Structures are given as structure tokens and as C-alpha cells.
Predict the structure.
Amino acid sequence: MAKVREVKGATITVNRRANYEYEILQRFDAGMALLGSEVKSIREGKVNLGEGFARLSNGELFLYNVHIAQYGPARLNHEPTRPRKLLLHRRELDRLQRSLEEQPRSTVIPLRMYFYNGLVKLELGLAQGRRKYDKRQAIKQREANRDMQRAVRHAQR
């Protein structure tokens, strides 16, 4: 059976396509530098992580293509897909940079956004893209596991 990971905080949104399109090699958590209108929009759940990715530039990690809808009542709003700085410790950034250099086809993608002690956190994954036959193989494996679980349940009755 797969190892169960402890989930921290109240989940806001999950990138469901990430596990289908990518093989997740490593997971880590990061804070986000946000504007007030972005936080209010996130509290309403108006976030899309689908096309998002993170990139290192000048020793800092930035999040791109994550859509946070504008907050209606705000007078001064934000740009929905602006690059957002991710907050990690220097040691974590160095480890991430080494991992990206060692694995040529890897990228950093957002997996889950959640609240932790009133702060918005982002679970990131170091991932490698799956090829089409890998995706098909993953679907077959998942269906086989589901059938096995179903057979075990019926055998126990």
C-alpha cells in the first residue's frame, strides 16, 4: 500500500493533473509573498494551479502562471497571473537547485495550496514529465489496484 503523507492545514486547492502528467520525485512546502487582495481572493477559493510552475532566478524561487482571480470589493486589485515570490530557507533553495541540475528533465510544480496558522502555504513538487505510455501504464496500474481491492472486499464478506 502507498505511504500516507500527513496533510497539514486546511486545503484551499489541489492540482489534480499534477499526479497524472508528472512523476513527483520530492515534495516540499513554501510560503508565498502575496498582496492583501490576493489573500482575500484565495480565502474565497478562486485559485487555479493547473498551469503553474516555479523557476529559480537569481537565487530566488518564483511561481508563474498560477491564476488568482481579482477580488471584487477591492479598490486596488492585483494582476491575476503575476509572478509571485516563494519563501524558502537558503538551504532548501540550494538543495532544490542541486536537484534541478542533477535531473535534466525535472521541473518544480505546485501541488496543493493550504492555510497553516493563518498563512498561505504552497506544497511544491520536484517532478519529471511523464510520456504518453507512462500515463497509460499508470492508469492500468491504478485500475488493477482498484480491482484487487474490490476482490479483497468481496472475499471478506
In short: The radius of gyration is 18 Å. The first helix runs from residue 18 to 21.
